[in-house]
Amino acid sequence: MGRVITIIILIGALSAAWRHYQHPSPSSDSYSSQQINQLANMVKPNEVVMYSTTECVYCHEAKAWLNQNNFAFTECNMSIEERCQQEFNSYGAIGTPFLIVRGHHMKDGFDSDEFLQALSV
Prior knowledge:
By secondary structure, the protein is α+β, with helices and mostly antiparallel strands. It has five helices and four strands. It has helices spanning 2-22, 33-42, 57-68, 82-90, 112-120, and strands at residues 48-52, 74-77, 98-101, 104-106. Strand 3 (98-101) and strand 4 form a beta hairpin. It is elongated, with a radius of gyration of 14 Å.
């Protein structure tokens, strides 16, 4: 089991590094700070679930952005809870962070514009 988690973490890290190379930094240029605050005030923790690992740098960045902008979310850390790993696998996810935002699966890691758009629908 530990070897599988290590492989998943490695695949996630490589996938995230490639996404970061293609899209250097997530931005929320399309939204004003007032719009972001309004969205944050309407979000309940169970509407945003982030699957993460303790070692994932991009998970830490996504959590920092969410916390900085006062978004409620539920973290499911696969390094700590086997249930989280099972759920992550059931979604066919391959990299972390993997977010589910009101039913929208963020398959390519965290991108603030995609996140905000999923909440705006």
